[in-house]
Amino acid sequence: MNLRVLTSTFGLVFLAELGDKTQLATLSLAASGQSRISVFLGAASALVLTSALGVVGGELIARWVPPLWIHRVAGVAFLVMGGLLLLSRE
């Protein structure tokens, strides 16, 4: 296991998930008085499954597309999304 990849992945995902819609939805569900352990297990399972899909999808894409182009496309996608958020009137 590559500890550097593990810690950088953890850090990036942790920071990206802080304060996002998923965390706020989980907070709302937990505050509704329902079983907190059920909310935690449901949210954690969903995050694990989406992460697994991302890993499998990334592996499949990397078989045909060089990593440099994956990084470039991801970078452009983030810039476009950021620009759209800056220009939105909400």
Show the helix and strand layout.
Layout: H1 3-17, H2 21-31, H3 36-62, H4 67-87
Q: What does this molecule look like?
A:
The chain is an all-alpha fold and 90 residues long. It has one domain. Helix content is 82%, strand content 0%. It has 4 helices and no strands. The longest helix is centred in the middle third of the chain and has 27 residues, at 36-62. It is extended, with a radius of gyration of 17 Å. The termini are far apart. The mean pLDDT is 89.
Number of folding domains? 1
Residue share in helix: over 70%
Mean of all residue-level pLDDT scores: 89
Strand content bin: under 5%
What's the alpha carbon Rg, rounded to whole Å? 17 Å
Instruction: Report the total helices.
Output: 4
Outline type: extended
**N- and C-termini, Cα separation:** 44 Å
Main beta sheet strand tally, sense and closure: none
Overall strand count: 0
**Could you name the ranges where pLDDT drops below 50 across 5 or more consecutive residues?**
none
Main structural class: mainly alpha
- What is the helix/strand order? HHHH
